[in-house]
Write a structure and sequence with these properties.
- The chain is of the alpha/beta class and 576 residues long.
- It is 44% helix and 14% strand.
- The chain contains 25 helices and 17 strands.
- A 7-stranded parallel β-sheet has the order 11-12-13-14-15-16-17, covered by helices on one side. Strands 2-4-7-6-5 form a 5-stranded mixed β-sheet, with helices on both faces. A 3-stranded antiparallel β-sheet has the order 8-9-10.
- Helix 1 packs antiparallel against helix 2 and helix 21 packs parallel to helix 22.
- The N and C termini lie far apart (64 Å).
- 44% of the residues are buried.
- The structure holds zinc ion (2 copies).
- One zinc ion binds next to loops.
């Protein structure tokens, strides 16, 4: 059995144990074992079990090892089967509803005898749920909202997880002897912030249909839906969905283009082709006479249509085809354009590393400056700094900067935008920073008008250099707060406040869909890792991806400026 299937079974055991209200340590043991198993790079855990490698792994104990042995050797676990008879599977589904924990689910199950998501939804709508002690109409409404949200978002994954899973399935496809080349396509290749299924295109040296069928019958596959030709939709036991397109080598370019999408981009390119009397169908490009044109790669495909090459990130049907026809596409920013970072936390507030450690890690990544932007005093839950701590931090930064490490450390702060739009700290203290990132961290549920006024007021404060994570969203967890983004973008442009593209993969906020408007109004941008550890600096890669989706070039991004440029840019905002 493969690691993915084993980990899935172990996780189910942990969920069932929690629903049965068993000892927390017991369920934690199964969760740890699931995590440990996933670290092993193999298609079959048999050898690792036999050699004793599995038993040595941190996170695997005697009990969990015997469950793994059963799964690997017999394909199932008696313990899991037993739990399945004791706890309805529908309760596992309820666990995924935001705001529903095991305690509430037990009450729902025992109080109303509900055991599926559909039954829960009905009871929440018809008033039964509200009659449960300590539930009420408010809770019922919340649960209904949670179910709707789940239905819309449950199939989605955050980009980094999709990328990790994508690379895993890509390796499996590439390992098939009949596959010459394979690559990721779909929304993952377009670097969307959330991804539903993973698209892989494979150029085959044997019959594509047979290769697809063999891959659909591999280990860890729960079900497969053939879609005709060499296309097949594969569902793995853990829920990963692979949309696999197996094609002949001469169809690869068009197949890759088509599988990359988006649908809107495809439509625009198709109508461009039609206007020139050409067609794109069955992974082939044909001219007006119906003659098949050879297409070496995607560059050749766009070229044949009189278009400049369009980077996958731009293929969203937002004017890129028309711009490619005018050869007016932006030169998209790349990771190597980034010269430093400004949104980083240290152990002065809720970060894990010291300022010196953060600076050394940033230097190792090739950057020449790092700004430390710890939380301000009102963010007490995140260890926000009292004024005395700010003074001490600045003294430490001065000391580190005098050590000639080849790395400039800037004095920043991520200051809370208070409920009335004022910036946390008084003006004298704010004057001491090189720059101020202003962020909303509280009172998210204000109405749109009040929230907009709050943020606009903050943007009017001359201390504010950057608006941090402008909509406050947490992908797949929390909607953006209600705010008039157009008004915010306009004011930021007028006042020279840079908009942040927060690169934390849970945020990726500003949304790329807002970037084009902001850029057209003259906004500048900061891409911030919001790093809370040295490892968090690696978030920058995700932020750059979003900036690319937003059509941004290096000149739009302030932290693509070198040491002198950034110092001058930060000073300019302060002095007007
Ligand atoms: Zn923040
Ligand atoms: Zn932050």
């Amino acid at each position: 059995m493969d690691p993915r299937s084993v980990a899935f079974a172990l996780t189910q055991i942990a969920d069932f144990l929690e629903l049965k209200n068993e000892n927390r340590f017991k369920s934690a043991a199964y969760r740890n074992a699931a995590r440990a198993v996933l670290m092993i790079q193999t298609d079959d855990l048999g050898p690792a079990l036999a050699s004793g490698e599995l038993a040595e792994l941190k996170g695997i104990g005697t009990t969990t090892l015997s469950t793994i042995r059963e799964l690997v050797e017999g394909g199932e676990s008696r313990y899991l089967e037993q739990l399945r008879t004791q706890v309805p599977e529908g309760l596992l589904e309820m666990l995924r509803v935001p705001g529903l924990g095991t305690a509430k689910i037990q009450k729902i199950h025992e109080g109303l005898g509900l055991s599926s998501l559909a039954e829960l939804e009905a009871a929440a709508s018809d008033g039964r749920l509200a009659t449960l002690p300590r539930f009420g109409a408010g809770t019922a409404a919340k649960i209904l909202k949670g179910i709707a949200y789940l239905r819309e978002n449950s199939a989605y994954m955050l980009y980094p997880r999709a990328l990790a899973e994508g690379e895993q399935v890509l390796a499996a496809v590439r390992a098939h002897p009949g596959v010459a080349r394979a690559m990721l396509a779909g929304s993952l290749r377009r670097r969307n912030e959330v991804v539903r299924d993973i698209d892989v295109v494979a150029a085959c040296t044997e019959d594509p249909e047979r290769v697809a069928a063999e891959l659909a019958g591999a280990r860890g596959v729960r079900e497969a839906e053939p879609r005709g030709g060499g296309a097949v939709l594969i569902r793995y036991v853990d829920g990963t969905v692979l949309d696999l397109h197996c094609v002949g080598a001469d169809e690869l370019a068009v197949a890759l283009w088509r599988a990359t999408g988006s649908a809107a981009h495809e439509r625009d390119v198709m109508s461009r082709a039609a206007a020139r009397g050409m067609t794109i169908a069955h992974d082939a490009l044909r001219d007006a006479a119906g003659t098949r044109l050879s297409v070496r790669d995607e560059h050749a495909l766009y070229d044949a249509l009189g278009l400049a090459y369009i980077e996958p990130e731009l293929r969203e049907g937002r004017g890129e085809v028309e711009a490619a026809a005018r050869h007016a596409l932006p030169t998209l920013i790349e990771s190597r354009d980034i010269r430093g970072v400004l949104h980083c936390h240290s152990d002065y507030s809720d970060g894990k590393a010291t300022i010196a450690e953060m600076a050394a890690a940033a230097k190792a990544l090739g950057w020449s400056y790092i700004g430390i932007s710890d939380h301000s005093q009102s963010a007490f839950y995140a260890g926000g700094l009292k004024p005395e701590a700010v003074i001490a931090q600045h003294a430490e930064i001065d000391r580190l900067n005098s050590s000639d490490s080849g790395m400039l450390i800037l004095k920043g702060v991520e200051a809370d935008i208070l409920a009335d739009g004022q910036i946390d700290y008084d003006p004298e203290l704010l004057d001491r920073f090189d720059y101020v990132i202003a962020s909303v961290h509280s009172r998210f549920s204000m109405d749109r008008e009040t929230m907009t006024a709050r943020v606009l007021r903050a943007l009017g404060d001359p201390h504010v250099t950057i608006l941090g994570h402008p909509t406050g969203r947490l992908l797949l967890r929390r909607e953006p707060y209600a705010i008039d983004m157009e008004a915010v973008i306009e004011k930021a442009a007028d006042n020279g406040v840079a908009l942040e593209i927060n690169a934390d993969p849970h945020r990726l906020d500003l949304d790329w869909r807002h970037c084009q408007l902001a850029k057209s109004l003259g906004c500048s941008f900061e891409i911030g890792p919001d790093a809370h550890s040295t490892r968090g600096l690696a978030n920058m890669e995700f932020g750059v991806g979003i900036a690319r989706k937003g059509w941004l070039e290096a000149t739009d991004v302030i932290n693509a400026l070198g040491v002198e440029g950034i110092a001058e840019r930060l000073r300019r905002r302060r002095t007007g």
